[in-house]
Amino acid sequence: MKFAIVIFLLAGGMAVGQTAQPPGVTSEWDVRKILGSLDQQAQRLRSVIGQVQPEQWVANGAPGTWVAQWKSAQSELQSLLTSSEAFARQPEKLSLALDTYFRMQAMESTLGSVSEGVRKYQNPALGDLIGAVVAENGTNRDRLRQYITDLAAQKEQEFLVVDREVQRCRESLLHAPAANERKPAHK
């Protein structure tokens, strides 16, 4: 299998350790720009949700679950930042791309609920601001989703090529005469 991968890399004109950017997949530079923009939005969200005061809501009769949900939103925001940072270091890793995307979705879902609580128990304008900052990130989310789709398609194609080469090598090894086989003597 290692032999097949080396052949695949060399046949593609690449030396081991290099990566070529296939057509249709966003470049690593552009992915890092998307992640930089995502991080800026997340930092902006951090300052906005820092203004939320669910403990005061509870003191005024709101359910105590709001505090837990607000803390969860803060935790999800930090997890998104951590995941995004790891993904920026290795933008070719599909698992990191998916982790970042799913963390973004979880954070946005929780913040949607928190913003409703803010509108009801604290300040409608602040709740709207949270919703607006989350909505501003829609372009980054869409671009990241497209990158994930393209990257997954690329990885599937690479796997198919490597698998075909492995099968071809296996066939040639099965049909090659053994080096130590002797021809029968003719009389």
Give a verbal description of the structure.
This protein has 187 residues and is an all-alpha fold. It has one domain (2-9, 27-167): Four Helix Bundle (Hemerythrin (Met), subunit A), CATH 1.20.120. Helix content is 76%, strand content 0%. It has helices spanning 2-11, 28-49, 54-59, 65-89, 94-121, 124-136, 138-175. Helix 2 (28-49) runs antiparallel to helix 4 (65-89), helix 5 runs antiparallel to helix 6 (124-136) and helix 5 runs antiparallel to helix 7. The longest helix is centred in the C-terminal third of the chain and has 38 residues, at 138-175.
Write the layout of secondary structure elements.
Blueprint: H1 2-11, H2 28-49, H3 54-59, H4 65-89, H5 94-121, H6 124-136, H7 138-175
Helix pairs in contact: 1-7, 2-4, 2-6, 2-7, 4-5, 5-6, 5-7
What tags apply to this protein structure?
single chain, 187 residues, mainly alpha, Four Helix Bundle (Hemerythrin (Met), subunit A), elongated
Number of β-strand runs: 0
Strand content: under 5%
Number of structural domains: 1
Largest sheet: none
Pairing-aware structural class of the strands and helices? mainly alpha
Tell me, briefly, the overall form.
elongated
CA(first)-CA(last) distance: 43 Å
Please provide the ordered H/E string of secondary-structure elements: HHHHHHH
Would you summarize the structure shown here?
The protein has 187 residues and is mostly helical.
